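Weekly sync, protein design subgroup
Attendees: M.S., D.O., the rotation student, P.L. (late)

Item 1: inverse folding check
M.S. brought a backbone from last month's batch and wanted to see whether the design step gives back something sensible before we order anything. D.O. pointed out we never logged the input encoding, so this time it goes straight into the notes. Structure tokens as presented (167 positions):
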């Protein structure tokens, strides 16, 4: 059953990364250090660490979502399909309000999923706000780069835009 889950997870990752690389001019993701994030928290026999079980659960969740594998696949698929992979520094993406650009750790009260700007009083889901910040940072980088058209692979299955035809 675990092999089946791994195959399904791998298939989903391939389908997702191929779709992102084919259908978008740029893909912006956080430049996360997954290997460091999933390091063991066991400590030593003399000084065992606290919350080892919680850290093990977090590590499983991170590895189950395959962040590192998605990044690896996007790194080689984006140039193949003519899009650009932009790695955004993760510092501040969850503490900055995307509209008024106020960065304050108090914008994330508690450990919940709520984002509340202390400057203007705006409320939103924390992940949505962080995704907006990542997109904005990626768009800023993408718009300032001089891009050369990428070579399409022969027999590419890229979707071409409709020209002059009614949809």
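Designed sequence read out in the meeting:
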């Amino acid at each position: 059953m675990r092999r089946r889950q791994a195959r399904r997870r791998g298939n989903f990752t391939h389908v997702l990364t191929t779709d992102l690389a084919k259908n978008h001019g740029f893909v912006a993701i956080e430049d996360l250090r997954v290997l460091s994030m999933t390091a063991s928290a066991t400590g030593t026999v003399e000084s065992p660490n606290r919350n080892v079980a919680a850290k093990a659960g977090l590590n499983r969740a991170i590895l189950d979502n395959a962040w590192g594998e998605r990044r690896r696949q996007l790194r080689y698929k984006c140039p193949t399909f003519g899009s650009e992979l932009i790695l955004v520094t993760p510092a501040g993406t969850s503490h900055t309000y995307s509209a008024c650009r106020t960065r304050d750790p108090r914008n994330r009260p508690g450990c919940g999923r709520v984002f509340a700007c202390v400057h203007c009083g705006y409320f939103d889901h924390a992940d949505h706000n962080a995704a907006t910040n990542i997109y904005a940072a990626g768009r800023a980088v993408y718009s300032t780069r001089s891009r050369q058209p990428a070579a399409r692979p022969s027999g590419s299955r890229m979707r071409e835009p409709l020209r002059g035809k009614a949809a």
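Discussion: The two ends are 44 Å apart (CA to CA). The chain has a mean pLDDT of 80.
Action: P.L. to compare against the previous round before Friday.
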